[in-house]
Design goal:
The chain is α/β, with parallel strands linked by helices and 462 residues long. 40% of the residues lie in helices and 12% in strands. The protein contains 19 helices and 13 strands. The chain has helices spanning 39-50, 82-97, 142-148, 153-161, 164-169, 173-190, 192-198, 208-227, 242-247, 262-265, 267-280, 302-314, 330-333, 345-351, 365-373, 384-388, 392-397, 412-418, 446-459; strands at 10-12, 15-17, 21-23, 55-62, 77-78, 101-107, 126-127, 204-205, 232-236, 285-291, 319-323, 357-359, 379-382. The strands form three sheets. It has an eight-stranded parallel β-barrel with strand order 3-4-6-9-10-11-12-13, surrounded by six helices. It has a two-stranded antiparallel sheet with strand order 1-2. It is globular, with a radius of gyration of 22 Å.
Length: 462
């Protein structure tokens, strides 16, 4: 078979995957407003597990119980005590019953990319330093422009008057600052929700005790997640979120032991890994996701990231997950093409001493198989393509490539998030409504069918 390499078993730590195809972590914000698991989340992951993915990596699950964690308007999954653990444990069991392994992605918070909680509107999100973020529209790519065109026509008119995004991308700093002031005033009046997503509030600086508390909470939550049935844990450290913010000089201007040198900026991450290994032992799967390059002025570079990966690996990581960019450069972590992030895989593998590397942004079986065969990655991850077609692996294995629903790279899914809408997909009408499909109900999972039928046979005639 042309794509046999995709379906070879692969071992990560103490976990054997049935194939080398993983679903990348993506937050579809389907948890309930209090951060609990939901029927929609169960069905969402069931579809991808049923579709043949060997590994599901969950959305970012936040372990921070404090209002300053930020961004509760996104409905993030929470894991702050046993009440949340029950639902998350059910999700792990559900994914297993539909045939996949599952790693849970854990986060200490959103930092400067977060906002004050609706429950505590006067308490800002906390970050390494009191530096707000702003999305730079010069970094929008074709996918973002496609979806931007369906937004408020008044905003569109203002952009078109300047020559559209093509002209904006060519602006120098002075020109862009003038444009930014104009578009900010317009968004404040016409679309305050989008404005808050484009312009971060000024965060407050985290205290030393808050930092060490989050280190301890990340370690404890990892141990508990494994106890609740997850096969592994991935530390959420890319895309300009809280851990990434500590790594970058752009967002970390602290003068204590958590700021300054690269070793100091990596201390938060390294301490999390060290404390976690002390709790879970040497064998359980503990990975981390990194942006290969922040791709912003004065941001953390690929060379620095390789050094950070080396420090992290020395503390006991099981694998490295790759991405790139941050929310100030949204085009970077949602590229228009395919395989853009493969360039980081070999460097990260070498820096980590040979740990398995997972790389996302794959769409086609041919490119995915070539990436593995050439050593650019050990496991391919599908993100937006897994939204468009949850049965991609099963179709490839069955020789049905022509039936694969191809991701349009329109970024509707991501822009829905910034619009605070129910996330949908332009090419897959079932996205967001998987819970209504009976084949994705737990009692219809392959591993449950025999037990259910046996039970129901004993109920006949009653």
């Amino acid at each position: 078979m042309e794509y046999d390499v995709l379906f070879e078993p692969f071992t990560v730590g103490d976990v054997e995957l049935k194939n080398r195809i993983a679903m990348a972590p993506m937050n579809m914000v389907y948890s309930d407003p209090e951060g609990f698991n939901s029927e929609q989340w169960l069905a969402w992951y069931a579809a991808r597990a049923r579709g043949g993915f060997g590994l599901i990596i969950t959305d970012c699950v936040v372990v921070n119980p404090h209002p300053w964690r930020g961004s509760d308007h996104l409905n993030p999954h929470l894991f702050i005590d046993e009440r949340y653990g029950r639902g998350l444990g059910l999700m792990a069991d559900n994914i297993h019953d539909f045939g996949a392994k599952v790693f849970i992605q854990l986060s200490p918070g959103f930092g400067r990319q977060g906002h004050a909680s609706h429950l505590a509107p006067n308490e800002p999100s906390a970050a390494p330093s009191a530096i707000p973020y702003r999305v730079d529209m010069r970094n929008f790519n074709d996918g973002w422009e496609k979806t931007q065109r369906r937004l408020d026509p008044r905003v569109n008119a203002a952009l078109d008057a300047l020559g559209g995004l093509a002209a904006i991308r060519k602006m120098d700093e002075k020109q862009y600052d003038d444009f930014d002031a104009l578009i900010s005033d317009l968004l404040k009046r016409e679309d305050p929700g989008m404005y808050r997503s484009m312009k971060g509030d000024v965060p407050r600086e985290m205290t030393h005790s808050e930092i060490t508390e989050m280190e301890d909470r990340m370690a404890f939550a990892t141990r508990e997640a494994l106890r609740y049935g997850y096969d592994g844990v991935e530390i959420h450290s890319p895309h300009g979120y809280l851990i990434h913010q500590f790594l970058s000089k752009r967002s970390n201007q602290r003068v204590d032991e958590y700021g300054g040198t690269l070793e100091n900026r990596a201390r938060f991450l390294v301490n999390i890994i060290r404390k976690t290994r002390q709790l879970i032992g040497p064998d359980r799967v503990l990975g981390a996701r990194f942006s290969g390059d922040e791709m912003m002025p004065n941001g953390v570079t690929n060379r620095e990231m390789q050094d950070i990966v080396g420090m992290a690996a020395a503390e006991g990581l099981s694998y490295i997950s790759v991405s790139q960019g941050c929310y100030e450069n949204p085009g970077a972590f949602t590229p228009d093409g395919e395989g853009d992030m493969l360039k980081y895989g070999p460097g990260f593998k070498e820096a980590s001493g040979g740990l398995p590397v997972f790389v996302p942004n794959m769409m086609t079986a041919k490119a995915s198989a070539e990436a593995i065969a050439s050593g650019q990655t050990d496991v391919v991850m599908l993100g937006r393509q897994a939204i468009a077609d949850p049965y991609w692996p099963a179709k490839v294995q069955a020789g049905r490539e022509k039936d694969i629903v191809r991701c349009a790279r329109c970024n509707t899914c991501l822009v829905n998030l910034f619009e605070h809408k129910w996330l949908a997909c332009e090419v897959n009408p079932t996205v967001g409504f998987e819970r209504y499909l009976p084949e994705l109900w737990r009692i219809n999972a392959p591993s449950m069918q025999k037990r259910v039928k046996k039970f129901m046979s004993k109920m006949e005639g009653l």
